[in-house]
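Sat 14:20. Reprocessing the chain from the morning session after the first attempt stalled halfway. Input below, unchanged.
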Amino acid sequence: MPVEIPKDTWPGAVRTITIGATPAEGGTRARTVTVGGEKSMPYLSFENPMPNPPIVAAEIRDARPEDWSKVLLEAWGDVVNDPAQWAKAAEAAGAEMIVLSLNASGKGGNPTIPAEAIASVKAVLSATGLPLAVFGPGQAELDNALLVAVAEATKGEKLLLGVCEDKNYRTIVATAMANDHLVSARTPMDVNLAKQLNILISDMGFPLDRVLMDPTTGALGYGIEYGFSAMERLRLAALQGDAMTQLPMLVTPGFEAWKTKEAKVGEGVPDTWGDWPQRGLNWEILTAMTLLESCADILVLRHPESIRQVKQAITELMK
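Finished this time. Tokens:
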């Protein structure tokens, strides 16, 4: 006797968003990435096939990141000293998008100035044809100064600028609107806060098909259950027809996983924790895989091997 699989039908759908612009579109990217468009929960292809697979992005920095785990720095080698070479290596590792994070301090330990940020961004744009996101150091005033300059210098490239938060979204949204870019809207793990920031951005006249949500998350063993729940509820609200939650979601499992003790520390820990490099890699991969199941559309990773393995897993999930 045949078994009929029950299917859910939803009135809503996630918006489709494209990052990057080719020469025909006024930019210089060799390719773009498109995410979103889901009409059901993840990987339920018997209900509605996912029109666009999740994207794996590589996080790089504009200078050698001294706060990163030694395991990560050794995995990338000397390219971490040059953002252009790092971007090339990330593309070779299989990244489909580059996320360039700007440091708060530039040459000589002084605050990074706009000219330095622009030079780093243009070097990366020249080194790779992948779509590019540019994130500020995380200090509202400095973020605004750097991202406005970068946005103006790269008009038409359709960069993803970040991060927009409640304390600085106005300036970043305004410069993205003026220079034809996109924005990443970050909020703590809360459905209502995410929705509220999207409303504020929309009220400025910025089209929501140029906004991605970053609901933030925890790493494996460090609050990922709460982040999973928030993301799942955001996606359910979107499918139920809530227009202010119908945005693709970007998450940063690389950042979250590699700040945990289990991934970052290799000395003074129990022998039962096992091999340090493999442990750190597993922590990032397992965090990323959990977030794939919780509706993530873009995963920002740090280790070249995790990029390869998570991409392979996405291919399997999409079959």
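The mean pLDDT is 96.
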